[in-house]
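Here is one chain, start to finish.
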Amino acid sequence: MRAAIDKPALSSPDKMDTLVEFKRTFNADFCELHIFETHQTTQNISLKFNNLTFTSMIQGKKQVKLENSRINFTYQPGASVLVAPNEEMLIDFPEADECPSQCLALSIDSDFISSFLNLQNEEYAKINDDSTWYISSDAYYISNSLGLAGTTNEILGIMLNDDPQKEHFAKKAISDLLMNVMKSQGHELLEAGKAKGRFAFVVEYINAHLHEKLSVETLAQLAYVSKSNFFKLFKQEIGISPNDYILQQRIRMAKRLLSECMNLNISEVAYQTGFSDANYFIKTFKKMVGLTPKAFQLKEKKFLS
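Its structure:
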């Protein structure tokens, strides 16, 4: 489930010098936080930053093209995007007349990022000797985890206030943000099949055997590590525990089955996704999705009809 960012109050149009990408900027020594608002439907707006920039959609909707990579996507709340230095974003705002868009952009000094990565790899090295901390250019689009949304909200609170300790708090919060970005990227790369190494193989195995009983002991053996180290390594690489990841993937598979196979009953979906107890499946599905499996299936059926 994607986590949303807290919504700062929208600016009053009569106090804006432009209705397209009106910008408020908040500075620290090593970063700039921009909050952009657009209240007018428009197309082909160009935007670029000098440093690596973490952006997150707060409200509204954009259509974005990353010019260097020729990638197009719809940008909505619950997602964040990393923009490389000097990469041009071409943006359309298809619904801004009725639903103004608001997006934050945190531009981070390259020296700060290098120092952070060096510190992580020297003092907080991964348990896995053949893996290092790095920010990937292949996972530019990130679904917000609770951790990522939480640190982003913390940064908003720090940067929008004039606390005497602002620089200190901002350094800690942005370091936490970068850590959450790397963990989210690891998850995205694994999901896209772009990751390499022992955990890419373990995740591939999990996704191919969701209908079976999966034990951490078996997964640890596949990764050639002890059970205790496997828990630490997996959470370090993926950002969540092995059991939480398996549960997340089973619910994702269940949603797909409920959407694509309308004739399947709930017990059969539970069985095919590795739940031995249908009642536990229903309870877990409702907790994670917000609807019972049956209600979700009926909603999908109505949407497709």
